[in-house]
Design a protein that fits this description.
Residues 1-22 are annotated as: Disordered. Helix content is 0%, strand content 50%. By secondary structure, the chain is an all-beta fold. The chain has a single domain (19-100), classed as Jelly Rolls, CATH 2.60.120.10.
Length: 111
């Protein structure tokens, strides 16, 4: 793994940022915008995820348990545990996702 160059990421993420991804040794940080009505059915990853809700309202399912989440909430999805999400309401959702170790094949926006 090589360290990202300054041209590959920004140190500042603002509400206007559509999405950012920064990889550090041992983890990756995604800043993701999900449009209203967007959802992802139950799936698993081989990595741990910690998700911080920055704005919007989402319904998260983790290992069969479901919660409605809003700004300030945190979701933890352990490796290989089924989880799903849906943006509910009329507003988009913005999340920060810390993944450890970094996802080998993911693309920005696929939290």
């Amino acid at each position: 793994m090589t360290d990202p160059t300054p041209e590959e990421y920004t140190a500042f993420v603002t509400p206007e940022s559509s999405g950012e991804r920064t990889t550090f040794n041992g983890c990756e940080i995604h800043v993701v915008h999900h449009d209203a009505g967007t959802e992802r059915e139950a799936h698993t990853h081989g990595e741990e995820h910690i998700i911080f809700i920055r704005s919007g309202t989402m319904r998260w399912g983790v290992d069969g348990e479901t919660h409605e989440t809003t700004q300030g909430d945190t979701i933890v999805t352990p490796a290989n545990v089924p989880h799903s999400w849906e943006v509910i309401g009329d507003d988009p959702a913005r999340v920060v996702c810390v993944t450890a170790p970094p996802e080998p094949d993911s693309e920005p926006g696929e939290t």
